Amino acid sequence: MNAYLERFMRSLKSECLRKMIFFGEHSLARALKEYVAHYHSERNHQGLDNQLIDPDEVRCVAGKVECRERLGGLLKCYYRDAA
């Protein structure tokens, strides 16, 4: 379990925490909440054959490519809109 936590913390630091300035505990908590949601539902994982941990919607292969942003554009997820 330690290796999984270390990988998550490394991703959290490199993709989120090192790129932001926090002005209190509330802004840090909000950033962590947004990152965890991105990590579990929008980010592909190499250890799972590049699949999502918790796929919330069926990915379609036709339609316009859309971009979902979190944390003011720091985290981005590209997906296809339903045709």
From TrEMBL:
Give the Integrase catalytic domain ranges.
2-50
A single GO BP term for this record reads:
DNA integration
Q: Which InterPro entries does its entry note?
A: Integrase_cat-core (IPR001584), RNaseH-like_sf (IPR012337)
Could you identify this protein by its name?
Answer: Integrase catalytic domain-containing protein
